Amino acid sequence: MYLSSTGKLISVDVSTAGSSFTHGSPKSVFDIPIFGGAAYQSLTALWDTTRDVQHFLVTTQAGATNYAPINFVQNLFPGK
Description:
- The radius of gyration is 19 Å and the shape is elongated.
- The chain has strands spanning 2-3, 8-11, 14-15, 22-23, 27-31, 47-49, 56-58.
- The protein is mostly beta strands.
- It is built from no helices and 7 strands.
């Protein structure tokens, strides 16, 4: 499995029988709304599966489509 650049979880069947390697066609499993947007979609730390691949854990924000910016001010009063 891998996460595509469009935010889709993709599955590919593979076989390593004997000394050969074969693969099937990629199949879209579902869309993953990664928290933080497209800039973070390639980071695998933002999603994971259980060992049996029956459950998925995804870092996301339920129901939100627009994110408020965070302003970080450092050294507002230098020297104090």
